[in-house]
Design goal:
The structure is a single chain. By secondary structure, this protein is an all-alpha fold. The chain is 60% helix and 0% strand. The chain contains twelve helices and no strands.
């Protein structure tokens, strides 16, 4: 099977299996999504959704968070991974948003990645989820599932190389959903330690399963 045909088969499966694929992070504004995605690095969405309600109640906007301190924010997020650095990044990010962008999250990759704590993956998530842009954020799930299924060759050893391959073969219309398809498939079916191949609807297409 050609790679192009594989993508068509995989996309067809996910369109039926996950017609409403979307982020599992809870948020009420672009700013709150940005905060949640920063917090979610090397941490589960479930954990983030447990700590953000109180954080967003007290600091719902960039202006409010910009007036806080890392020490105060730390107390809200102490149960997530790397709380010290994330608390510092959140306050610095909020201050830069307030000072340079009037508190609004910019719809621009360069401006987003200039914010403290915001890398390419985080920026891609925001651009895709908030504005529906054809952006493919590559996290550990996307990276793993893409290789196992054979969507990308073994020579794609970096998140950026995987991103470029996925955006080349998924259609522009599919890309925002495809990001969530691959994440959710990796989170619940194609798990890292014990993938549930017996119950996977993609087994017949999967390079890893077929050996």
């Amino acid at each position: 099977m050609t790679r192009a045909r594989l993508y068509r088969e995989v996309a067809a499966y996910f369109r039926q299996a996950m017609p409403e694929a979307k982020t599992e992070l809870h948020y009420g504004s672009p700013f709150q999504l940005l905060v949640s995605v920063i917090l979610s690095a090397q941490c589960t969405d479930k954990r983030i959704n447990q700590v953000t309600p109180r954080l967003f109640e007290d600091y719902p906007t960039a202006e409010a968070m910009a007036l806080s301190t890392p020490e105060v924010i730390y107390e809200y997020i102490r149960s997530v991974s790397y709380p010290n650095s994330k608390a510092r990044h959140l306050v610095e990010m909020a201050r830069m948003l307030w000072e340079r962008h009037g508190g609004e999250v910019p719809q621009d990759m360069e401006q987003l990645t200039a914010l403290p704590g915001v890398g390419r993956k985080t920026a891609n998530v925001v651009l895709s989820v908030v504005w529906g842009e054809a952006r493919m954020a590559v996290d550990t799930h996307v990276f793993r599932v893409s290789h196992r299924l054979g969507l990308v060759p073994s020579s794609c050893t970096t998140p950026l190389s995987v991103e470029r391959m996925l955006t080349r073969y998924f259609t522009e219309e599919e890309i925002p959903a495809a990001h969530h398809w691959l994440i959710l498939h990796g989170r619940y079916t194609c798990t890292a330690a014990r993938p549930r191949c017996a119950s996977c609807g993609l087994s017949a297409l999967c390079r890893s399963y077929r050996g």
